[in-house]
Amino acid sequence: MQWSPFEHIEPYLCHVVTKNIIGRPSTFHRIESVKRPFLISGPCSAESPEQLMETAKQLQSKNVQLLRAGVWKPRTRPNGFEGRGIEALNWLVEVRQETGLPVATEVANKQHVEACLAKGIDAVWIGARTAVSPFAVQEVADALRGSEVPVFVKNPIHADLSLWMGAIERVKQATLGPVWAIHRGFSRYGQHEYRNAPMWEIAIALQMAMPELKIICDPSHIAGRRDLLQPVAQKAMDLGMHGLMIESHPNPNEALSDAGQQVTPDRLEEIMQSLTIRNTIAEPLHRKNLDALRLRMDSIDEQVIELLTARMNLAREIGRYKGEHGMTILQMERWKEVFDTRGGWAASAGLGPEFIESFLEQVHKESIRVQTEEMAQKK
Question: How far apart are CA 181 and CA 253, in angstroms?
Fold first, then answer.
């Protein structure tokens, strides 16, 4: 199924203005009903009224459900462009009035939240640098308490599933509106193909822990380069994520922040049209065929567990022998032999080197643990 900007999308915007519990008009009341892929787009930063309005007008026909723009920009180092501040909230309001697009921006403290609520901003997100601090997240959550404003929570900059879940839980406990997660990858040291490590397994673990939570992907911050946006976006769709946040700017190369990862609205449309959107729920016939294959996989998994158990029992015997004969647990020559030979076997079988290296390291770690445990009992 190919994504089309002209495909009918179930209405997501409640045009009948209601009042939330703190009295601010809530115009973004049915966000949960939007079909995949939910698309958030707009510039990294709101640079000027003209730039923001031009972006919004170009995005009007691109099936964007929510216009994003950073008003306060938390930069890693000082003296960079840090946003236009409260003044830019007025620009967002003007854009919404002119185009009808709901608008969103990032909040990092109580003052940001209060300013957004006062201006009637439709949705907010908590950034990766804020999500690392439970104190900061709690401050934002308390400021949002009782509000129906939808909140998107980005993953923390470092790979900590519990920290991400905690941030989401703090917001959910305080607010009345939808709370979604945004997967934007994780920081790492050095130069790599992607700006941030995708570490898809963490987003998958989050979905398993919170099955009702909707997760969208931010390919812009994962990729860090506009030429890598499409494959990251496709991967997110293949994993069943609910939508995408992709930065768009009418003149990306002239952007005041993150120029390399922004695309024009036309290029955004091309990326979205290129995506294959697969069903997240299998039809009965497919489910039957998949169940048959999964039964075979279950049987193999059971055998793998039995073999690993047998291996660890042997590791205990080896640990007992080493303890009785005054030998150290770690025998580097043996470990190198295991690592090299098993790696060769795996390569011959067509298994990926990174996978088998990680697997062997985990098996070795557990072997050391059980041998240490066995030696301790002999003292």
Answer: 29
| Distance between start and end Cα atoms, the chain | 64
Identify the residue whose tokens are 């205990």: 316
d(Cα 379, Cα 376) in Å, to the nearest integer?
6
Going from the N-terminus, what domains does the chain have, and what CATH number goes with each?
Answer: 18-274 (3.20.20.70), 284-378 (1.20.59.10)
Question: Which residues of 196-326 form beta strands (DSSP E)?
Answer: 215-217, 243-247
pLDDT tens digits, the chain, 379 residues: what are they?
444 432 333 333 333 333 343 333 444 555 666 778 999 999 999 999 999 999 999 999 999 999 999 999 765 556 566 668 899 999 999 999 999 999 999 999 999 999 999 999 999 999 999 999 999 999 999 999 999 999 999 999 999 999 999 999 999 999 999 999 999 999 988 778 898 999 999 999 999 999 999 999 999 999 999 999 999 999 999 999 999 999 999 999 888 888 888 999 999 999 999 999 888 776 777 778 888 888 889 989 999 999 999 999 999 999 989 888 888 888 888 888 888 898 889 889 999 988 989 999 999 999 999 999 888 886 6
pTM of the model: 0.76
CA nearest neighbour of 182 among 149, 223, 217: 217
Q: CA-CA distance, 319 to 312, in Å (whole number)?
A: 10
Residue 69 to residues 64, 66, 282, Cα–Cα distance (Å): 13, 10, 36
Q: Are 218 and 154 in contact (CB under 8 A)?
A: yes
Q: Are strands 123-126 and 18-19 parallel, antiparallel or unpaired?
A: unpaired
Say how far apart CA 18 and CA 35 lie, in whole Å.
Answer: 23
Asked if 12 and 33 count as a contact pair (C-beta separation under 8 A), the reply is yes
Sequence-distant (6+) residues with CB within 8 A of 259 are 249, 252, 253
- Residue 53, CA distances (Å) to 14, 98, 101, 103, 254 in order: 23, 8, 11, 12, 16
Query: 61 Cβ partners below 8 Å, 6+ apart?
Result: 5
